[in-house]
């Protein structure tokens, strides 16, 4: 008897997680990057919406105390 591998359920990624993962100065940066890496390694399909993209761009394009250092 063989068992078929079951694909993990897709995960919707909230704007905050994407922003935290993108900005090293945020306190939750390491946690966000680690969790996204774990999900990717597990083969989980990550979903975001157009609204998430809009919010991400808005959050990172306005001046704040956390200045992202893009390389």
Q: Your description of this structure?
A:
The protein has 71 residues and is mainly α. It has one domain. Helix content is 46%, strand content 6%. The protein has 3 helices and 2 strands. It has helices at residues 15-22, 29-41, 50-61, and strands at 11-12, 46-47. A two-stranded parallel sheet has the order 1-2. Helix 1 (15-22) crosses helix 2 and helix 1 (15-22) packs across helix 3 (50-61). The longest helix is centred in the middle third of the chain and has 13 residues, at 29-41. The radius of gyration is 15 Å and the shape is elongated. The protein starts with 10 loop residues before the first strand and ends in a 10-residue tail after the last helix. The mean pLDDT is 87.
Features:
single chain, 71 residues, mainly alpha, two-stranded parallel sheet, 3 helices, elongated
Short recap of the structure:
This protein has 71 residues and is mostly helical. It has helices at 15-22, 29-41, 50-61; strands at 11-12, 46-47. The protein has one domain (11-61).
């Amino acid at each position: 008897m063989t068992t078929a591998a079951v694909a993990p359920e897709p995960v919707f990624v909230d704007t905050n997680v994407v922003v935290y993962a993108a900005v090293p100065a945020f306190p939750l940066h390491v946690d966000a990057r680690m969790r996204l890496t774990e999900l990717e390694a597990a083969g989980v399909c990550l979903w975001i919406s157009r609204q998430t993209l809009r919010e991400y761009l808005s959050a990172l394009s306005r001046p704040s105390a956390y200045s992202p250092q893009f390389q």
